[in-house]
Amino acid sequence: MIPVGEVPSRMPAHDRRTALRCDVYREWHGSSNGHWTSRQDVDDRQGTIYEVAVPYWLRMTPEEAWRRVLDEKNREDVLRVLGALDQWRTATVEQVEALTDVAGLARGRTSLMSALWNAGLVDLGRWGTPWDVRQTPPHRFMLRPAFDTEAHQRLSRGLGWREWHSATAGLGWAADRQYPRHNVLAVEFGLRMSEWGNVGMVLGERLSSWELVAGVEGSPSAADVVLVRPDGLRVLVEVTASINSKIDAKVERLARMLHENPDVPMVGLFVVAPRHDRGHDPTSSMARQLSVAIERACRIWPGRAEAPTKGRIAGVNWQYLFQPGLVRDDARFLPAAFPADGDAWTDRHVLDPAEVALRAPAAFDGKAIIRNTQALRGIPWALREGGVELPVGGAPVRPRRKPDPTLARMMLAG
Asked: Is the distance from CB of 405 to CB of 171 less than 8 angstroms?
């Protein structure tokens, strides 16, 4: 293990690099859902026994909030923040600032966070004790897309198609699949890999569906994060906070998908990240249960001789990679355990092509997904190549009831 601040970083001078962000794995306590409120919640409670005291830095009328949201000088920051939340679902303010390179998101009474919340575009949350904004520094709050579809429609009416597509990948705004602790840990893992890892791109949950990244038509399944190695290998990351009856089915679904798609260049990785604030550490027992589930799934869905499933599915413990203020010195290549012959397991580095080889059709273009996603506003800022201009303007947006994923599929194809 080496100090976090000594790891070679793609953002060495950034105020929200990993070394300076809150360690959400260590600091999270209380309910896994956190405690949330929206501007509408506050309005509905006014004059009742459930009335919520709003601090000075959140006091803004909806009219003033919309003026700030629609102000041309704030347009790019608004699109980056909402694009990041749309792709990653839930994140702390610090994480959003790291993802977007938008500084001071929660600074001052007229902050962008305040404007977005008062306009009904985001919800505000915190972990720990029940919601009390007066006890939490603004930068320690969490944000997620609000369920106010009218607010997002109002925003979309003022956007051009090119910038709307850059923020949503053409999938439209959404506020589903919100599991706060799970989402926040997935964001943190994605940010650390985007800062340190041997990756060309990192995609959040909205773009991590099997349908988009693996071409599995009609599949509702999705990874939490997708790491794209520079050669195009996709690593489908599942952050696992608990081991229960559902994990066997989840592992088997992934093993079956790998078995049935031997030519798709991808690997599945389970990251075990249990609660550590409940009086005992279940990491070892969870790792054993996950190992049993993976071994069983690989027997049922073994894959082909040239693409065995046991060479394409692995597990690793969060605490094996990260300790408070420390990180493994080989984290850049992401060490993990793969099942081997019999009951044996072998350690390999997922992001090292010499240890986990790329197997793909001759026509596969590994760089395509990296090139095609550069103009999306929700990707980690650390991975955006210099000189890339983010799209602006375009024809008026005509949101559909059911967005067409065709363009997103083409963007993520190899």
From this structure: yes
